[in-house]
Design goal:
This protein is α/β, with parallel strands linked by helices. It has a single domain, classed as 3-Layer(aba) Sandwich (Glutaredoxin). The chain is built from four helices and five strands, in the order βαβαβαββα. It has a five-stranded mixed sheet with strand order 1-3-2-4-5, covered by helices on one side. The protein starts with a strand and ends in a 6-residue tail after the last helix.
Length: about 110
């Protein structure tokens, strides 16, 4: 996953990509540290989704612009609109089911 620190770059990627997943985490967060590799593995099954990460504690203003005040948070944008927001206690199985459903709806390659 590509690390983003600029609001302008992130906004541009959201506006110009069909599907974008953003993972907000922190190296100081033990839940984030265990979840991030699992999210990276899961999102590889969806190559049409642009996967990004934001280090929330290093990018406070960027996190605040997306109303992220706790971590981990996973956002999925489809055609520039926030479609999924998962916060703190995240079931990766449920998240993947939601992502797969949207991928099927929008004719994106999905497993």
């Amino acid at each position: 996953m590509e690390t983003i620190t600029s609001y302008e770059k992130l906004k541009g990627l959201i506006e110009n990509s069909h599907m974008v997943m953003i993972y907000f985490g922190s190296k100081a967060c033990s839940v984030c540290n265990s979840m991030k590799p699992k999210v990276e593995k899961m999102i590889k099954r969806y190559p049409a989704i642009k996967a990004l990460t934001v280090e929330a504690d290093k990018s406070l203003k960027l996190s605040a612009k997306f109303n992220v005040f706790t971590v981990p948070v996973i956002l999925l944008y489809i055609e520039g609109k926030e479609t999924i927001r998962e916060v703190r206690i995240i079931s990766l199985d449920n998240l993947e089911q939601k992502i797969a459903r949207y991928c099927q709806i929008f004719y994106v390659n999905s497993p």
